[in-house]
Amino acid sequence: MWFKTRHGLADVQPPFEILAWQSPKTKQWAVYIRMKYGPEGEGRDLFRKVNLSNPYVYLAWVEDGAAVASQLGQIMASIETAIRSQALVCDLSTAGSATAWGKGYHLIQWPPQ
To answer: What is the predicted pLDDT for the residue at 104?
Structure first.
């Protein structure tokens, strides 16, 4: 399934899970996909401990506030609708808040459809 976001397009194949998470630093909320195809936990290399984790993909960021639960619910409902209808693309290009993505991301100005 393809996900169209404010940041770009991502092709994600199962197994994966879609979760919401609040950043402890910025207090903003993210809806993201965490892939579920590899081992997770702690390990060791020759000199130190390493954390093993599956890759993740951010789908939307939401500013913290009174409406955050509603916004997260709307994003999750859009994803569920796309999954149930077996849509090729789940369009989240206007979901969440553009400013919540932060300075590290280049945002796409998608043309209106």
So the answer is: 82
**Per-residue pLDDT tens over the stretch 35-62:** 987 767 787 778 888 877 788 999 999 9
- Tokens for 21? 């998470």
- Cα separation, 83 vs 86, whole angstroms: 5
Residue 87: CB atoms within 10 A of its CB come to 13
**Neighbour count for residue 54 (Cβ, 10 Å):** 15
Element (H, E) at 111: none
DSSP labels, 9-75: EEE--SSEEEEEEE-TTT--EEEEEEE-SS--EEEE-SSSEEEE---EEEEEEE--STTHHHHHHHH
β-strand partners of 17: 34
C-alpha dihedral sign at 63, 65, 69, 73: negative
Lowest mean pLDDT among 5-14, 39-48, 69-78, 88-97: 39-48
